[in-house]
């Protein structure tokens, strides 16, 4: 069964009708609207159905070539929705700004987002500072297709959730950075094998290469039989060089930080937020690729 997110994460009305009403009550925006009504020729703004849009590009095919100008009255609630909501993930300035820019525009957007994220108590409390460790192993050759090389790892154990889960198993595509994850009560070989087949292979096909750590949950007869029969090259990272499996190591760090921002104090409901955080990660622009993982994985 699907567990709904707690009711304190309500959606806000950002419909065109609401934006139109608020725009006409915003003195700065309304002055631009009046100017366009007198002289429609403006390289930066356009009126459409009496709603003010910011022109971002001249493309007729780009769905984000123009976005509505957000009134001041909606900026605070919009920042809360696009940063704090579980489907947005409590991410930093880069990801939050990239997500907003496809939907809205207002003057000094970057500064607004920077100030909001900097003042977010949950982010200040739980964000981690990443530093690259010395002695990185040489990176593996980049794959030529999505889901060709995948990384898999367990995160946990953590406090047992109300549903009995203590671990998260995470699979990351090397090329697109797309993540698939599931909450589990254990980290056994059987659970790992079942996740690989049921959640990945049956949906996305057989990868050419699987990279995991050398723990018994991955280095075992069951997974060896599966990878051998499907002609999957299974590579192991070693405990003193975990960077070999750095794709999931980085997401594990992100996941631990993000999920802590939504959980109740004893974290009994942490697995309720897992699908939303994975969604937020997959639909946010990745700093390495400059695209969202979803875009690269599925077009």
Automatic annotation (TrEMBL):
Gene Ontology molecular-function annotations: nucleic acid binding
Domain of life of the native organism: Eukaryota
Annotated Integrase catalytic domain residues: 138-299
Gene3D superfamilies given in the database record: 1.10.340.70, Ribonuclease H-like superfamily/Ribonuclease H
A GO biological-process term: DNA integration
PANTHER family linked: INTEGRASE CATALYTIC DOMAIN-CONTAINING PROTEIN, PROTEIN CBG26694
Protein name: Integrase catalytic domain-containing protein
């Amino acid at each position: 069964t699907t567990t709904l997110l707690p009711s304190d994460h309500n959606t806000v009305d950002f419909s065109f009708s609401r934006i139109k009403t608020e725009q006409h009550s915003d003195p700065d925006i309304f002055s631009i609207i009046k100017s366009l009504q007198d002289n429609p020729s403006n390289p930066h703004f356009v009126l459409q159905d009496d709603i003010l849009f910011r022109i971002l590009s001249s493309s007729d095919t780009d769905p984000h070539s123009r976005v509505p100008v957000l009134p001041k009255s909606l900026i605070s609630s919009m920042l809360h929705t696009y940063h704090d909501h579980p489907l947005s993930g409590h991410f930093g300035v880069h990801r939050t700004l990239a997500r907003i820019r496809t939907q809205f525009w207002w003057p000094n957007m970057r500064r607004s987002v920077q100030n909001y994220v900097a003042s977010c108590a949950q982010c200040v409390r739980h964000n981690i500072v990443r530093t690259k460790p010395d002695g990185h192993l040489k990176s593996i050759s980049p794959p030529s297709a999505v889901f060709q090389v995948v990384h898999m790892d367990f995160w946990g154990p953590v406090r047992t959730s109300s549903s009995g889960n203590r671990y998260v198993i995470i699979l990351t595509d090397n090329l697109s950075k797309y993540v698939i994850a599931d909450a589990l009560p254990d980290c056994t070989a059987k659970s790992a094998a079942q996740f690989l087949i049921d959640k990945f292979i049956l949906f996305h096909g057989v990868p050419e290469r699987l990279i995991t750590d050398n723990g018994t949950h991955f280095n075992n007869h069951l997974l060896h039989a599966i990878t051998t029969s499907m002609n999957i090259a299974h590579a192991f990272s070693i405990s003193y060089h975990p960077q070999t499996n750095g794709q999931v190591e980085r997401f594990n760090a992100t996941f631990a930080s993000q999920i802590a921002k939504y959980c109740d104090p004893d974290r009994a409901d942490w697995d309720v937020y897992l699908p939303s955080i994975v969604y937020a990660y997959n639909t946010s622009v990745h700093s390495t690729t400059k695209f969202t993982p979803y875009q690269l994985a599925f077009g």
